[in-house]
Amino acid sequence: MTFGTRTLAPALLLCAIAAPATAQNNDGPSVQGDLAVTLNDGFDDDDALNFDWPMLSIGTGQYEDGPTGVTVIRFGRKVHGAVDARGGGPGTVNAPYLDLGYVQPELDAVVLAGGSWYGLEAVTAVNTAMKDDGYRGGHWNNVGLAVGSIIYDFGGRRLNEIYPDKRLAQAAYRAARPGTFPIGPYGAGRSAMTGGLFGCNARSGQGAAFRQIGEVKIAVFTVVNALGVVTDREGKVVACHAGQSWPRDLRAHDLLNASPASLSPDWDGQQAAEPDRKNTTISLVVTNRSMSSAELKRLAVQVHTSMARGIQPFATELDGDVLYAVSTDEVEAGPGDGLVTAEIGAVASELMWDAILSSVPQQPVAPQPRRSADGSDLQEFAGTYTFGPLASLEVTAEKGRLYGRATGERDVFAIRKDGPTELRPAGSNVFVVPGRYPFSIRFEGDEVVVNPGRWQQVGTRK
Amino acid sequence: MTFGTRTLAPALLLCAIAAPATAQNNDGPSVQGDLAVTLNDGFDDDDALNFDWPMLSIGTGQYEDGPTGVTVIRFGRKVHGAVDARGGGPGTVNAPYLDLGYVQPELDAVVLAGGSWYGLEAVTAVNTAMKDDGYRGGHWNNVGLAVGSIIYDFGGRRLNEIYPDKRLAQAAYRAARPGTFPIGPYGAGRSAMTGGLFGCNARSGQGAAFRQIGEVKIAVFTVVNALGVVTDREGKVVACHAGQSWPRDLRAHDLLNASPASLSPDWDGQQAAEPDRKNTTISLVVTNRSMSSAELKRLAVQVHTSMARGIQPFATELDGDVLYAVSTDEVEAGPGDGLVTAEIGAVASELMWDAILSSVPQQPVAPQPRRSADGSDLQEFAGTYTFGPLASLEVTAEKGRLYGRATGERDVFAIRKDGPTELRPAGSNVFVVPGRYPFSIRFEGDEVVVNPGRWQQVGTRK
Amino acid sequence: MTFGTRTLAPALLLCAIAAPATAQNNDGPSVQGDLAVTLNDGFDDDDALNFDWPMLSIGTGQYEDGPTGVTVIRFGRKVHGAVDARGGGPGTVNAPYLDLGYVQPELDAVVLAGGSWYGLEAVTAVNTAMKDDGYRGGHWNNVGLAVGSIIYDFGGRRLNEIYPDKRLAQAAYRAARPGTFPIGPYGAGRSAMTGGLFGCNARSGQGAAFRQIGEVKIAVFTVVNALGVVTDREGKVVACHAGQSWPRDLRAHDLLNASPASLSPDWDGQQAAEPDRKNTTISLVVTNRSMSSAELKRLAVQVHTSMARGIQPFATELDGDVLYAVSTDEVEAGPGDGLVTAEIGAVASELMWDAILSSVPQQPVAPQPRRSADGSDLQEFAGTYTFGPLASLEVTAEKGRLYGRATGERDVFAIRKDGPTELRPAGSNVFVVPGRYPFSIRFEGDEVVVNPGRWQQVGTRK
Amino acid sequence: MTFGTRTLAPALLLCAIAAPATAQNNDGPSVQGDLAVTLNDGFDDDDALNFDWPMLSIGTGQYEDGPTGVTVIRFGRKVHGAVDARGGGPGTVNAPYLDLGYVQPELDAVVLAGGSWYGLEAVTAVNTAMKDDGYRGGHWNNVGLAVGSIIYDFGGRRLNEIYPDKRLAQAAYRAARPGTFPIGPYGAGRSAMTGGLFGCNARSGQGAAFRQIGEVKIAVFTVVNALGVVTDREGKVVACHAGQSWPRDLRAHDLLNASPASLSPDWDGQQAAEPDRKNTTISLVVTNRSMSSAELKRLAVQVHTSMARGIQPFATELDGDVLYAVSTDEVEAGPGDGLVTAEIGAVASELMWDAILSSVPQQPVAPQPRRSADGSDLQEFAGTYTFGPLASLEVTAEKGRLYGRATGERDVFAIRKDGPTELRPAGSNVFVVPGRYPFSIRFEGDEVVVNPGRWQQVGTRK
């Protein structure tokens, strides 16, 4: 069973600002420096939230070779901010400062990124870009302040460990523009996943929502990369690669009430799968309504807590969830708008649920294997393909069948290190490995493309 | 529309340990000292969670004259604890100590009480009871430690301001016994309400749930007194006195998505009701599994966050939500039980949802008014009735109709201060005021009983 | 070597509001209820800070039978407050609320007490006194808020475990008056000590200081009960019962630089004394200058940190140090007064050092033993004297010498449980045990007075 | 009056790893990329702490053109850490994570840097260097974790805003070696100052101290950049450019007790100087003794608090003080070593005071002006010199006198923008401006060197 409602992203429009990507991702500094940068593109209108708020500019950057990315939200002036860190393994820059609640606004930008703790370089890089560009300086009342957080998008998510770095983040910062926030697997959410606790391993991304009530604007942004599953307002699981013997009409409370049994592939309590040990959902809520630091903190707490409805479970020890709350201070609070913080929080929380739901992309589907192979000469696919220093794949053909074996540090998804796995034909140059998770592989000359499409991983034959 | 699924509590079996209550509640210290104490009773099996865990003893005490109460959970030895304070107005004793994460267990008891910040006397009283009884002493390794929190159960909830005090708390502590936790309007949850944000004003109480997985026991307890509404796993509102023009099939996301319109009685965005400014949900999760202080803190965060599913919205600035997490350290953690903290947290979070749902009592229903009054002489009901220093009621009969007017500091619920309200006959000595909230009044000699039943308020004719 | 500069307190003027104290302190609830209460007295002008600030009222109460006590600081209206908890074992009521930084002032009183965690009953009792007296009520904008902390004054400090309770605290609250704060061993500081880390075991107390700069008033209060020693501005130790072989001109940096050697009685690193495991210094700084919650928090942090100069070491794991900062909001901040928070903090920090120094009372000195006993018949002193349930003393006379042996749970200071200790004559009915710490005992009929004077302990012959 | 005890640093041994610095510091990204890097040098034995602890490696990097720098402390394996943020404006990376108290050690390095919040790039850069070098990777149990903090070393400290960036930090990280920590104006302390609150404006730097007790090693490191003054153990001010009418024998308590009068240049309460609004002292304490997360937090609190003795005032709203505490877990805790955390904390606190004192370099002294100028042709010095985008200096000669006027955004120290300042001859090409702070200027061809020596600023004639 595979869920998913949004249309596939169109082909990427690469906007290279550096040398084109090499196929060889050896993960070292030279490679990071050579990676192609994709900025603010790769999505169409269905994949973006469009909204009218000149004070907010959004820049999205990706290394498609990861894939991984960064999302920068710039404010048109210094603003007040608050932070709420709830997960067991957060990554943050300058969180204690935000907690202090100063009278004077200081915050310039919130940066969200992939790359686990390495991706925090993206946050500090946005700050130094403001300095290098002369937008901010060193006088005590003009020091730039970017804060931000990261998600863990390594592990089982991809075959390399490319991370968003200074170069990518500064490019995304400089490309920021108002009005459009791409939703789905873009920016910081490029390689996000959900549901690892139950083995769901669904693809995820970043989401957003916006609403205006009178003069009060509220926008929310989130990068959903959770141990838990995404759930809708009727309690249904939105995306999950379910086990074969699982209930067909999967509801969140089935999964949750049945745990620990539901942690095992066959719902029988045996051989509980070890969940991926690191996950993170990072979020931002912005309002133009004036709010004191204390009110912003209350808003952050309320909205962050509310996310437990759309992501179940949430804020576990294996998540590093952080939420930022910001007021751009454009509209004075007053009796006229009839809203207390709790009410703004209630509205923002519903928006955040919308944003969570918007983040889920259509899930990948592998083609069906064919009964009989076509006449292609399988030997042309044989060889050893490398995906960088961590993963490589040995392909052999024998008696009209094609086999793969992972020969690097790690498995190539369904192709394990511990023995040959048959690659069953699904097309002239396309093969699959059936199983709980879609897995396909396409041979193109000296390249092999694993899981072709939005999250493909490309290897090169030595 | 009124929701509610549990049966009405049986008549109370008063277990007075002091002089019987006087009808006059003048809220001063002498009256507090004269109030009748109800201990561990007033409920039948349907109104209690029964579970097997000798290490936990529960004592419940109430001043029915409030009504208000206290719930004491004692542990059979010193245990580790953690705390997570999320609401905007928490009341706590010794929270910073719990946050320090000491190696040595120190905690003896968790005390939950009504009475807003005054009810914190119940927490410190349990600690001094341990000292006075010689159970704990002054040596540095034997100092008693009770922690705890309170709910705000004044305001629109009742006509007096009686609070749980030292006498009540020490009695409840000394009456604690293992195996039974009353659910519904008992103990600290005696005058709890929910849904004030939307004007729901549903009666609430305390809830509990228990589960054992192998050797691992998990119990959760909660006193639900929330600005938000209680919601079930399909997103339906469990209890609400809905406005007349509201949707008949009320779902939480209708209320939430439609705010701020749903904050007004007629769902039209006009005249938004001001929510009661203080509310609090206070909770406890206990496991017998060994957990370090850091793990307990993670458990507290995860379970507390999860409560946003069963109470919507949750953790607002107008709540003072606090959750305690405790390990009794009876079962070693090990690979054998296949559970990491996140999984225990997931199970405990589902239990907490069950506990929240269990807390909701059957809602009061007022009798129907009769078309024509019976022949009773209404003059016999006339007079001024007082409910203590805050509220009094003037009843007059004129031309075969009965009228009430509140003459004290505050309204007597549907009977306002600003003019006479007709009391429409519903029985020989029973009258009602139709409206969104059930309101009835029964005359018995020189006493008047407002909203007879579980939450009745008794006034006396001068 | 014994330091100390202030004159001995005059005889106490007991102001009993209850039945007179019995000689038998059996530490149970009945005894707590029978103890005599001493309010706002027992000190003369040299022992008090007098200052002009009508907004602050101070009430001091003591159970001389402990001795232990409570100090209540009431504010003339609701004020803003902040808290800084630094020690390893703090005792607090409502600290998380103060940390939230609300716009509306809520705080009514700060309560400091002895009695370890049991003494927190004094804090909650002041709150319920405000309610019981009708000064505060239950409406959401009028709920009373008392916060406060306790010191650990059990252990080696006295032979009983009497603690400040509801009765004492409410009496002290109701006796509060402006203008006078007793300094030395009064109120919460009644049985305070310092220097346990080095075996100094000096008597301590509560201190205070006040300064006005233009319109800005600053008052500081502290109860010094520290693991460390009190030090003056030249780095000298103010009070310490030094070991025999210690340097004569004792300076704090000698003690500190030489640790761990200085932890042993003979400065040789052998047999390090185990310090008393619990200590606490609790403090309050108040200004009439308007300050936001964030500014108050900064003030609290700065002043609390500065106390490490006058108490060395400070804020250890064996302390439970807490400081409250309050603004009465009587004087607007402005450029006119030329003060930023850091400067107010600097002034307040010097005041706090003054307050710490003021807290140290003259240390007790035991009389010299006589070469030869007078002709008194020692048999008249023989018998078993009890100090309550924890300590009793067997006195025997043999061959013209008097011996003591502790027969209860604990030693009677220099008189141990493990064998007879000779009581050497120092007067007709006065005896001493020479040693590092002054110890004398006086027989009066059926009573025995240990360490007669300010901190005496009275036992009764069975 | 100028204090200072340590010898002047020898000439720098530049170890350029990039193109040599240009004279033109226009502060943009290209310039940052062109700056010469100085690594682990520029100091002699008197300027370093040498100690034996292979588990600790130290790397120090500077941009002498700032001057500013970075100090990296690497640990030989993953270690436990805790953090204590006390100042009003801290800069931190990953502080909330450290506060969580995980069982598994995660920390790899602590990075201290100049450059205000921009310098946080140095912290994240060390983390990505570990990844780029293959020392750490992306598997969940092997993710690199560098934490760290920054000081504010812009403002009145120098004429440019160069900051430690990724290039400098990664070079310093890779140059780290055990055994030597340079003390004084090196690394992160390159442009540190102290005493701004009183106008002292003394040069400062980084300090360190080490002690071994049995098997237990303790090392402390600090970068002293404080609003307050550095004070020794007798309460004397160690370094201050005092006002002319100030007491000759300046003691800290004179300054502090006399504030706010002591905040004015003439100690008269008039024209209080506005202190520099941002300062920070950042510190690290390391022990090889095993400590739990809770114990490390206690250690951090105790040692950080103790620093208020050596820096007065400390932890103000205008500081951003942060301290890290680390255990390398090499020596088991046990009764054998006779040390509880409080005692280790006491020893470490004395070491920290030593480290603070060691950080103070010899203060710069300007040459005396001559009565009569020599015969040099002053016209040869005339021209406009630029120090980068922020500062430039116009030098004119008239009637045998030389004048300067600042023509950029800011003053060139004693040479103001608001009018010509006479430059009085002190040598053939050396001139001074007498005043509270030493100021001299030397002409060398087309370059002008302001305050020649350790903290010189070089301008170039257009």
Keywords:
462 residues, L-amino peptidase D-ALA esterase/amidase, eight-stranded antiparallel beta barrel, Lipocalin, 7 helices, eleven-stranded mixed sheet, alpha+beta, 2 domains, globular, homotetramer
How would you portray this structure in words?
The structure is a homotetramer of 462-residue chains. By secondary structure, chain A is α+β, with helices and mostly antiparallel strands. Chain A has 2 domains: 29-358, 4-Layer Sandwich (L-amino peptidase D-ALA esterase/amidase); 378-461, Lipocalin. Chain A has 7 helices and 25 strands. In chain A, strand 22 and strand 23 form a beta hairpin. In chain A, helix 3 packs across helix 4. The longest helix of chain A has 18 residues, at 341-358. The radius of gyration of chain A is 23 Å and the shape is globular. In chain A, 63% of the residues are buried. Mean pLDDT of chain A is 89; it is low at 1-27. Chains in contact: A-B, A-C, A-D, B-C, B-D, C-D. Chain A binds chain C through residues 100-103, 292-294, 297, and chain C through 100-103, 292-294, 297. Chains A, B, C, D: Belongs to the peptidase S58 family. Chains A, B, C, D: GO terms for molecular function: aminopeptidase activity. Chains A, B, C, D: Keywords: Signal.
